[in-house]
Each structure stands twice: as C-alpha cells, then as structure tokens.
Design brief:
With 486 residues, the protein is of the alpha+beta class. It has three domains: 56 residues, no CATH class; 227 residues, Beta-lactamase; 164 residues, D-Ala-D-Ala carboxypeptidase C, peptidase S13 (D-tyrosyl-trna(Tyr) Deacylase, Chain: A). The chain is 34% helix and 18% strand. Strands 3-2-19-18-17-16 form a six-stranded antiparallel β-sheet, sandwiched between helices. It has a five-stranded mixed β-sheet with strand order 14-11-7-4-15, covered by helices on one side. The longest helix is centred in the first third of the chain and has 28 residues.
C-alpha cells in the first residue's frame, strides 16, 4: 500500500488518538487534592456529554457511513469470483475497499479514460483542430486554374448533416460542419475549379487500424484512421443508427473527404473536377478553414458515447504533439509517459498501452491506476464532466433511470466479449461536495462475460449513490447549549 493510501486510511484514527491523549494529559496536570473553596455556578448546561461522538463528528462519522457501502462492494467482489477482476471504492479521498487492485487486466473502453486524460493534459481543454482549403493556382473571375487542396488537421468529427441526422439525440455529440467549410470556399469567390480537389492527410501516418483483432475490424468498430476523414471515414450508413456493422467504410478516406467537399460545392453552384489524394505544396495559399469545437467537447463526445474513432485520432495527435509522428504507436507511448509524470501521482506499474480506444486486447491496466487517474483529475473537473451520465447521456443514458444515481453518476463503460468495466464518480444527491470514486474491471474467457456479471454493476453504482448514509454531520455535531436558571 502506498504511503498516500496508508495516510488516507489511518490518519483520522491517529488524529482521534492524539486528541484523546492530549486531553488526558491536560486533565492529569489539572488534578489536585485540594477542595475548591469557591462554589461554581454554571449559567449553561450542555446537551451533549463531553464523551459524545458528536464532539468529533467528521472523524467519527466516517467509519459509520463507510461501513454502509460495504454490502454493495462485497456483492460485486463476491459476484466476480471465478473471473479475473479488480474493484476499488474511495469516498471523499478515503479508501473504502479494494480488491485485486494491482492485477493487470484488459480494460476495453476504460482505456479511453487514459487517452482523454492525457489529451487534456498535453493539449489543453481549449485546443481545437483546424481543417483548411488551399489552392495552388491563380483565380480569375472566380475560376481556379489549378488544384484545390482539402488539408486535414486531424479533426475526428468533421461531418455532414446527413451523418449527424442518423442520431435521434445529439447532446454531447459535438461535430464540425463540413458545410461551413464549403460555404467559406464560396465566400472566397471560387465558382469553378479546373483542376482536381485533392485530399491531404499527411498530418498523420496512413495506418487505418490499431493493433486489433480481425473480428473487431470486421464489425466496423472504428472507421479507417486518417488525419482527413469526413463522417469518420464512412461512405454509407443507415438513416437511423442501430449498429456500426451496417456502415461502409471508404478505402481511401482522404479521397472520400475531397469527394464529399466537391459534392457540397456542386450543391452551392461551384463547378468542380475529380477527387484524389495528395499533399498540398508549401507554396499553396489558404483560402478557407473550419475549426472544431474545443478539445473538452471532443473528449465529451469520445467518453460519453465511447467513440472508438475519436479516441484513436486523439492518440495520433498525442504522438504528433510529443514526437512529431502522428502514429498510434507514438501516441500510445505518449499516453503512458504523460500518466507517469509524478505530478499526477498515478501508479503505472504493469500498465500496457497499445491503442487509444481499448479495442486492442493487448492493453493492460489496473484498478489502482484508474482510481489514481480519477482522483488526480478530480470529481468536479472538465474530465469528469465529459463522462456519460446515468439516466441522462451517452452509454449510461439507459441505466440508472429514476434511481438515486440519475444525474449523479459520471462514468465510463467498457465492453468486449471477454471484458466488462465501469469506472467513474458518484456525487451524493443528499450532501453536495461528497463523492465516491469507483473502478471495476472483470475479464473472462473469449467466449464472453455473462450477463449475470454485467448485471452486478447497476445495483452497485446505485448503492454508491446513497452515500453518505448514516448520521449526518448536523446530527453528529455538537448540540446547542440550553440556558438554565440557577
């Protein structure tokens, strides 16, 4: 156990013992065999005895309310018997229970917690991604004699209205409108392009997937990775989203992006040429641009809806920012390096980072790392607010409906055939400022985690939402004195 964890667990008891010893010593010094010669008349009487628990409310209340969480924690620990699993629960920075906390496990989409934490730390919450349009020829009376370049800046959610319309609820799904960029090109005075519209994806490498199992690639768990992709690199999709497997991905996402821009320009009365992939010359001139929402909003999209594509693009950004190489490997190394910075007090022992989304089944992390990360970020941080919300948003929208956890749990889900995970924060609905940090990861055989194991999570979290149960500070605090007549 680390020194910080030791102090959080035992410091309250040590404080009580020290106070008791000091009080005893003071009383001993004041003892005398002489009888008092002056009668003492008390104007007030105490409702609370000297040796009452009410006289050390914060310290003595903690074990009572912490014990109230024990059944919920024990239920999920016992229910995970037979699986490789870890659990940690902390309340107001006090460790309540941990089990298997140092066991390396495959995290599934809890990996996104690492990616988004690192992205916010490295790039800053206000960072934005820019997509530009450049030209390499002269424009005469609105006609471009040359090529028009669509240059990608790694915006993961550059998209069209047709893509956005497949979702019936868009709270937290932040996008950059490609239509705005087409409007900007028209505003620049372009009415005809006699050359080619060329998509430039050179900001990142051209690896389209991470180190993933083929079944996950076949399931379309992510679009093809590129610094320039529209609609997450997809060519077609159902009108209403049901499953990613029903989508069709572009073979060359940069060419597809250039082609979609060409279609939007055509709709706006601009005559365009064919689409292709290439690199904009250094001598080219920028004529238009579109900027993404702030990174904190991009992270909210990734975490709330567990968006694999967005997480993988963020990892490539981290590689580019730290090494100049926009690759998954460089980015994964950057994530681990950022987390290992002593300023964050995160234990990275036994951790393996191989991608950004958690699709890579070679990833390994521990509940100890997750709890350290959540504590370092803070329950009132932008990071915490980016997570899905019980009963309200994202992957938890359908869970904890009309329960104590509705609107109070902020967490990241994680699911693969052999993995279930859930980690985050629960804010007390009855006592503002009180919160619980929890982590849970379980690994089984490739055949699958059974639904009985997954079903443990909802009651577990809803019990955490009753924190703090037991006597309140007002109930344990010193009672007011009552005036009496001598």
């Amino acid at each position: 156990m680390s020194s910080a964890r030791f102090l959080r667990r035992w410091l309250p008891l040590v404080v009580v013992i020290v106070i008791a010893i000091a009080a005893w010593q003071t009383a001993k010094i004041a003892d005398t065999d002489e009888a008092s010669t002056t009668p003492v008349v008390y104007e007030q009487q105490l409702d609370t005895p000297i040796l009452s628990a009410r006289r050390a409310p914060a310290t003595l209340r903690a074990p009572v309310i912490d014990d109230a969480l024990a059944p919920a924690v024990s239920a999920i620990v016992d229910g995970s018997a037979g699986f490789s699993a870890c659990v940690t629960v902390e309340a107001n920075d006090r460790l309540i229970r941990e089990s298997g906390e140092a066991t390396p496990l495959v995290p599934a989409s809890n990996q996104k917690l690492l990616t988004t934490f690192a992205a916010l730390a490295q790039l800053g919450p206000d960072h934005r991604f820019i997509t530009t349009v450049r030209i390499d020829g002269a424009v005469t009376d609105g006609t471009l004699e040359g090529n028009l370049y669509l240059v990608g800046g790694g915006d993961p959610f550059l998209s069209t209205e047709a893509w956005r319309s497949q979702y019936d609820e868009t709270s937290g799904r932040f996008h950059t409108r490609l239509e705005d960029l087409a409007d900007a090109v028209v505003d620049a005075g372009i009415v005809r392009v006699n050359g080619t519209i060329i998509g430039d994806e050179s900001y990142f490498d051209s690896e389209r997937t991470g180190p993933w199992a083929q079944r996950l690639i076949d399931q379309r768990q992510s679009g093809p990775l590129s610094a320039l992709a529209v609609n997450e690199g997809h060519v077609s999709w159902p009108e209403i989203y049901t499953s990613a497997i029903n989508r069709s991905a572009a073979e060359e996402p940069a060419t597809q992006a250039a082609n979609v821009l060409g279609q939007l320009l055509t709709e706006r009365g601009v005559t365009v040429g064919p689409a292709a992939t290439g690199v904009a010359p250094a001598s080219s001139t920028q004529i238009a641009s579109v900027t993404s929402p702030a990174l904190v909003e991009v992270v909210t999209h990734v975490n709330s809806y567990s968006n694999n594509y967005g997480a993988e693009i963020l990892v490539k950004h981290l590689g580019r920012a730290t090494t100049g190489v926009g690759s998954t490997r460089a980015g994964a190394d950057a994530v681990l390096s950022i987390l290992a910075d002593p300023v964050y007090e995160i234990d990275t022992t036994s951790v393996v980072v191989d991608d950004g989304s958690g699709l890579a089944e070679s990833n390994q992390l521990t509940c100890r790392l997750l709890s350290d990360l959540l504590r370092s970020a803070g329950h009132d941080s932008d990071f915490a607010r980016s997570l899905s919300i019980g009963g309200e948003r994202g992957s938890l929208q359908g869970r904890h409906v009309e329960s104590a956890a509705t609107g109070q749990v902020f967490a990241k889900t994680g699911t693969l055939n052999s993995v279930t995970a859930l980690s985050g924060y629960v804010e007390s609905p009855s006592e503002p400022g009180s919160f619980v940090i929890f982590t849970y990861v379980a690994n089984g055989e490739l055949a699958g985690i059974n639904e009985e194991l997954r079903s443990l999570q909802e009651p577990f979290v809803e019990q955490l939402a009753t924190y703090p149960s037991g006597p309140t500070l007002a109930e344990l605090g010193p009672a007011p004195s009552v005036a009496t007549t001598p």
